[in-house]
Design a protein that fits this description.
5-stranded mixed β-sheet, transmembrane helix, alpha+beta, transmembrane, monooxygenase activity, 5-stranded antiparallel β-sheet
Length: about 400
């Protein structure tokens, strides 16, 4: 066997083996978004899932709150049109309800920087499996900003899924199949027309003969009388077909509601962030070798109780101070116990301002690709600092600051 044949055999064998080397991917691309966008646009907190295991047709409710940061990145368009959705690997669930600040919410909405909102999304399980589910915002001209995620297991049989609704005429329809045949026929018809038109021209000599004909000044012969006649027929027949079909559809479904494209106006909640505790970051450094964000901050406690720093949250990554562990959630991959260390762990007295030094240290800065912040043209970080008083009452302050990289 010649060397060339061996090389071709090896190449073919490699290509054939590629499908067996591909492993499933469970992420949603959230790490690909620049860190300054993930940390300084939508800051999520109190996100919860009603359950981690359901059956087909069962409901799953996702609730939570978010703060729209005051220090919105200059390079990101303002959130004048934002759409909250749920990220899942395909149509494994359907969304049945969605609320913003308790109001039913259908369209996109304008968000106010510095404001707080809460949301609720109700889903219905459709396809059995184990999926990672995130709430996320689609920001116009900026892209998706993911919230925290959770694994959800759906049991049962996909064939048992029911998705029926009653129309205004009282007709019960199955949303899984309604209009499917009609959509298939229309797609097939337009594909047939387009393919026939393409083949009509492909049956003739193509590029070089036609080029030579043009160069010879004989371009009039490229389009025949028959070509022009067929073109005129298509030009007239297509609009007639579309308008006729539209009239028939309006006659059959006189009370159809079109897809909504307006912009909802929903006022923010009463402020929870930056109300009783205000924080000014005096210095922020990211230690590349330690994978640690170190900050010096002045905390102004305007509550009537002493408080202590319990948590630093940014881009769905939560660093917890174990010295204030009694009010903290259980750890998971993005909730890191004993990763927030406050120097001397001071208690900030009521009505006082105190300068504190703290460090959020964990490999997740690298794993979540947040350490790329130092490579951005906008090397600023944002996040939420969460404080508790001895009675367990929470105060939240939003922070933002430029980050200085430290390489040793």
């Amino acid at each position: 066997m010649s060397k060339s044949a061996i090389r071709q055999f090896c190449l073919g064998l490699s290509l054939l083996s590629l499908p067996f080397l591909v492993t499933p991917v469970f992420a949603h691309g959230e790490k690909a978004l620049e860190p300054f966008i993930r940390t300084r646009t939508i800051q999520w907190f109190d996100v919860q899932w009603s359950t981690a295991a359901i059956q087909v047709n069962d409901a799953l409710t996702v609730t939570g709150k978010f703060h729209v940061t005051e220090d919105w990145p200059v390079g990101v368009p303002k959130p004048d049109a934002a759409f909250l959705n749920i990220s899942a690997p395909g149509p494994v669930m359907i969304r049945t309800e969605r609320y913003l600040n308790g109001q039913p919410w259908i369209n996109s909405a304008a968000l106010k920087p510095g404001a707080d909102y809460d949301f609720k999304v109700v889903l219905k399980a459709r396809v059995p499996g184990r999926y990672h589910i995130h709430p996320f915002f689609n920001l116009k001209d900026a892209g998706p900003v993911m919230g925290p995620g959770q694994w959800v297991t759906i049991g049962g049989n996909a064939d048992d899924f029911v998705n029926q609704i009653s129309t205004i005429q009282g007709e019960l329809i199955d949303m899984e199949t309604f209009g499917l045949l009609n959509a298939g026929l229309w797609h097939g018809a337009w594909m047939a027309v387009g393919l026939a038109w393409l083949l009509w021209w492909l049956r003739r000599p193509l590029f070089m003969p036609r080029y030579r004909q043009v160069k010879a000044g004989q371009e009039q012969g490229l389009v025949t009388v028959q070509d022009r006649t067929i073109g005129k027929v298509i030009l007239i027949a297509v609009p007639i077909l579309v308008l006729s079909a539209s009239e028939i559809a309006q006659h059959l479904y006189p009370n159809a509601i079109p897809l909504q494209a307006s912009l909802d106006r929903i006022e923010p909640l009463a402020q929870e962030v930056n109300t009783t505790v205000h924080v000014k970051v005096l210095r922020a450094e990211y230690s590349v070798t330690d994978r640690s964000m170190k900050m010096t901050a002045q905390v102004n406690n305007q509550t009537d109780q002493p408080i202590r720093l319990s948590e630093f949250s940014t881009a769905s990554l939560r660093f917890l101070n174990d010295d204030v562990a009694q009010f903290q959630p259980p750890a998971d991959s993005l909730i890191v116990k004993d990763s927030l260390h406050v120097q001397d762990n001071p208690e900030i007295a009521a009505g006082q301002s105190t300068t504190i030094h703290f460090a959020a240290t964990d490999a997740n800065w690298k794993n979540e690709k947040l350490d790329g912040l130092i490579n951005d043209a906008d090397s600023r970080i944002g996040g939420l600092l969460i404080f508790y008083n001895p009675a367990g009452k929470r105060s939240i302050a939003a922070i933002s600051a430029p980050v200085l990289p430290v390489f040793n």
